[in-house]
Amino acid sequence: MAPSRPSLLLLLSVSLLAAARLAAATDHIVGAHLGWNPNINYSDWANNQTFYVNDLISFRYQKNTYRVFEVNQTGYDNCTTDSAVGNWSSGKDFILLDEPKRYYFICPGFCFNGMKVSVVVHPLPSPPGSHNASLSEHSKIHGSGAAASLLGGGGFLGSLAATAAAISAAWIGI
Ligand SMILES: *[C@@H]1O[C@H](CO)[C@@H](O)[C@H](O)[C@H]1NC(C)=O
Ligand SMILES: *[C@@H]1O[C@H](CO)[C@@H](O)[C@H](O)[C@H]1NC(C)=O
Ligand SMILES: *[C@@H]1O[C@H](CO)[C@@H](O)[C@H](O)[C@H]1NC(C)=O
Ligand SMILES: *[C@@H]1O[C@H](CO)[C@@H](O)[C@H](O)[C@H]1NC(C)=O
Ligand SMILES: *[C@@H]1O[C@H](CO)[C@@H](O)[C@H](O)[C@H]1NC(C)=O
Ligand SMILES: *[C@@H]1O[C@H](CO)[C@@H](O)[C@H](O)[C@H]1NC(C)=O
To answer: Does one domain contain both 37 and 101?
Structure first.
């Protein structure tokens, strides 16, 4: 049996919201337009932006010449790969920063030429206006609209989701 229209709409509003939240994660391109190359001071680049959990760090470089190794602090300080927890070599690598901690990346062979970068990843900030008690009151009154605000927080995305949920709620007839 095909799903009814209202549930499709509700599904749409929820997945739209999920997509929007995913899109909110930033892709930090190492070195910006300079990419991953020797003789660049990447601490200037790293210090100039804020990293949050679920952001991406991406390395763009000449394949077969350079690589990316994730190492620990010792590996970063001494340009060694004994501590490698991952390595990439596609020339365009996207690495998910999924933990709130300091990450270290180096390029073996070119690490002493400056191809090393360390970034601090911060925990996700709590969504704006997350009031526990008032939210449950809210959900009694507004039904699925509150579900959307629970997922979406505030701002444009939140109102977008609330609108979508309101439409589906109207369709269901609550
Ligand atoms: C990179 O720049 C920072 C400050 O901008 C400086 O402290 C650091 O020594 C530099 N690193 C190198 C290898 O030059
Ligand atoms: C820091 O970021 C600003 C704004 O994005 C940019 O204009 C500036 O060139 C950046 N500086 C460095 C050293 O990357
Ligand atoms: C890393 O290098 C420092 C000096 O820069 C040295 O004291 C230390 O023993 C080295 N660590 C390893 C594991 O090689
Ligand atoms: C990094 O890993 C190496 C090899 O596993 C280890 O000897 C070293 O103590 C580690 N350094 C840190 C700071 O955890
Ligand atoms: C690079 O990563 C692969 C797995 O993705 C692993 O099998 C290989 O040993 C790693 N290479 C080094 C030099 O750490
Ligand atoms: C939400 O509830 C949890 C546990 O009940 C509490 O730790 C947290 O501070 C509350 N957050 C707000 C914004 O009231």
So the answer is: yes
State if residue 126 touches ligand 6 by the CB under 6 angstroms criterion. Answer: no
| CA 130 – ligand 6 centroid, Å | 8
- The domain in which residue 71 lies consists of 31-122
CATH number of the CATH domain containing 80: 2.60.40.420
Looking at the fold, whether 140 and 167 belong to one and the same domain comes out as yes
114: CA distance to ligand 1 center in Å? Answer: 10
- What pTM does this model have? 0.67
Give the distance between the most distant pair of CA atoms in the chain.
66
Q: What is d(CA 112, CA 125) in angstroms, rounded to the nearest whole number?
A: 35
The pLDDT of residue 125 is above 80 = no
